[in-house]
Amino acid sequence: MTIAPFRPGTPPVQTLPPGRWHGRIWVSDEPLSQPGRYLTCVAEFERSGLWPVLIPHDQRFAANGEDWIDDRGRLAPAEHKVASVEPGAALERWWDVSCCDGACLRPFGAQFPGLARRPSSSRKADPLAEAGNTGSILAARAPHRLGLVQTERPADIPALLGWTGMIKSTDRVAELSAVLRSWEERFGATLIVLGFDTLELSVSAPPRSQARALAVAAEHRAFSLPTFTNQPGNLREFASGLVQARHWRFSWA
How many Å apart are CA 148 and CA 52, to the nearest integer? Predict the structure, then answer.
């Protein structure tokens, strides 16, 4: 796919609300009043090369009139490093067993169990259609600004922007994007929400059984330990919530 040169200040899509470029991300000035615009931007992605992300309202910054996109630091862009990262090795390095006495990790233990298998391709829905539908639903439920990033694939956006949302756990944003690439390929998991320290993905090929979901849950726990520890259950219970789940949410708050 050929992508047009990046031109900050140029309106990327004719149907967009008022907004402006903040470095390498274009952001609407106000929350979307027409959630269907997200679906339109997804449909135009292959032509425009601009992937839409929803940017949720964050009360932590509203009180001081701040905007984390401008008022918080960023890491150096690292999209050029993503292809050289092995996602399984990154997740193995992030596999932290210190959060409990080991019981919460069963049936796994101190060693990361490895990457979950790819679901059957014959049962995989269209990832872009899934992303458009899920994103439109989320935009209708709560206020989100619209962000657009020039990229060949949504997974690269954190690395491309030097996103710091996971900084409490790691500063290797290229590794984060490498895992997102792997999930795109195996599960049709597509980035649709980018917050200050949250990511949300639509999922077109989720695990369909508890056994498959357990392996995916281990990946989720390694990827974002706070997401796991902030819920009351063990890994088996966490996995139950991933069976057929078409929306994944991660937080490093």
Answer: 5
Rounded to two decimals, the pTM is 0.92
Q: Taking Cα atoms as reference points, which of 119, 121, 120, 112 lies closest to residue 88?
A: 112
Residue-wise pLDDT for 45-103, tens only, equals: 999 999 999 999 998 887 778 899 987 889 999 999 999 999 999 999 999 887 777 77
SS (H, E, C) 179-227: HHHHHHHHHCEEEEEECCCEEEEEECCCCCCHHHHHHHHHHHHHHCHHH
Instruction: Note whether 144 and 32 are within 8 A (CB).
Output: yes
**Which residue in the block uniquely carries the two structure tokens 């520890």?**
229
d(CA 124, CA 74): 35
Amino acid at 110: A
Q: Give the tokens for residue 161.
A: 């922007």
